Amino acid sequence: MTAQVELAAVSFVSRSFKQVSTSAQFRTLFEGIGWSPDLVRKIFDGVVSSLSVDYCCSTLLAAWRIKTSESLALNEDALAMVDDFYSCCKGYVIRQLVKVRDSSDWRYLPKPIQDELQESSAFSFVEIGTADKKRVPRPLLPRNSANGKGKNPGPINREQKKN
Length: 163
Known about the structure:
Elements: H1 2-15, H2 17-20, H3 24-27, H4 37-49, H5 56-68, H6 76-95, H7 97-100, H8 111-120, H9 144-147, H10 158-162
């Protein structure tokens, strides 16, 4: 019975992490007698496994607030757990960044965190209106039949083509 109650509590906290993480009761899990590494690990694992594009930014922001909280005195183990949790949330956002940027949750992240995520992503993002309007030449594609070596022979001269 106790295991079922704990599972239900962890599930609830995982689903409502954004709201629960700001409560004083949640913060007691990290402090003094209330420090419960097994329970915190289960909660963090539950949150990470249930991340979705729709609310991963608010979860990342909640993890960042815990990580950077000056009012929360984290011991070394708790700090390591929070760092790992933040890294997992950040990794999820980075992997899903193309979708996340279009979600309504994206706007809740502070601009410096948005910039950090975009810099960490494998994709490059250009804000509309900031690109230089000069024409950029398109890359030349390799022409395997042109020289038989698969290397790009360069642009085709129209006069050479007629011959």
